[in-house]
DNA sequence: AAACGCAACAACCGCAATTTG
DNA sequence: GCAAATTGCGGTTGTTGCGTT
């Protein structure tokens, strides 16, 4: 991409001179959305100049991907989303963008924030006390300490079991529509054990 | 009401990976 | 194949708002 007459050597991540930093204003958001809606985003580096924004391309990209994209989902994470994140994190580690790809409308940044503010603590709580570990009852019920409740399993219920920390297991009932996905994971990741059909 | 501490989240930074000439 | 440009990712920091003292 080196063009004749352009500066050689690695460019700084953003040109600091005269460029705005910090929180985005509504007017800036509007400009960015209007520009991308009309022209798309083929070149983030040139985009701010062309859109009339005093921002670096990186800042524009981040703002668009995390907040302004029309398909970005806002609001609290559901229990199912949290469980999916925990499960995927145990498999993939801190691959936030990879994890985000399994959660439509959620961004890597959002998931990363959730992990550091909520889930990490939740798991730490789970490993800190034996009283918060999980157990299986012989009558095909599971005790969910997270909710202080006992759940009966239907005859065809699929249960996902996962080790969160040493000796601490997490259990999750899989909605019928997600069964195929979780069954697929068994072949990808042998350490994670599908509890199986309970009948 | 003010000061303080903490949690939540938006945004930045540095670097690796990928693309391009 | 190489070097430079660009993009994307993950770690980290800064800001804000809320609850507590």
Automatic annotation (TrEMBL):
<feature type="domain" description="Myb-like">
    <location>
        <begin position="69"/>
        <end position="119"/>
    </location>
</feature>
<dbReference type="InterPro" id="IPR015495">
    <property type="entry name" value="Myb_TF_plants"/>
</dbReference>
<keyword id="KW-0238">DNA-binding</keyword>
<feature type="domain" description="Myb-like">
    <location>
        <begin position="16"/>
        <end position="68"/>
    </location>
</feature>
<dbReference type="GO" id="GO:0003677">
    <property type="term" value="F:DNA binding"/>
</dbReference>
<dbReference type="InterPro" id="IPR009057">
    <property type="entry name" value="Homeodomain-like_sf"/>
</dbReference>
<keyword id="KW-0804">Transcription</keyword>
<keyword id="KW-0805">Transcription regulation</keyword>
<dbReference type="Pfam" id="PF00249">
    <property type="entry name" value="Myb_DNA-binding"/>
</dbReference>
<keyword id="KW-0677">Repeat</keyword>
<keyword id="KW-0539">Nucleus</keyword>
<dbReference type="InterPro" id="IPR017930">
    <property type="entry name" value="Myb_dom"/>
</dbReference>
<dbReference type="InterPro" id="IPR001005">
    <property type="entry name" value="SANT/Myb"/>
</dbReference>
<protein>
    <submittedName>
        <fullName>Uncharacterized protein</fullName>
    </submittedName>
</protein>
<feature type="domain" description="HTH myb-type">
    <location>
        <begin position="69"/>
        <end position="123"/>
    </location>
</feature>
<dbReference type="GO" id="GO:0005634">
    <property type="term" value="C:nucleus"/>
</dbReference>
<feature type="domain" description="HTH myb-type">
    <location>
        <begin position="16"/>
        <end position="68"/>
    </location>
</feature>
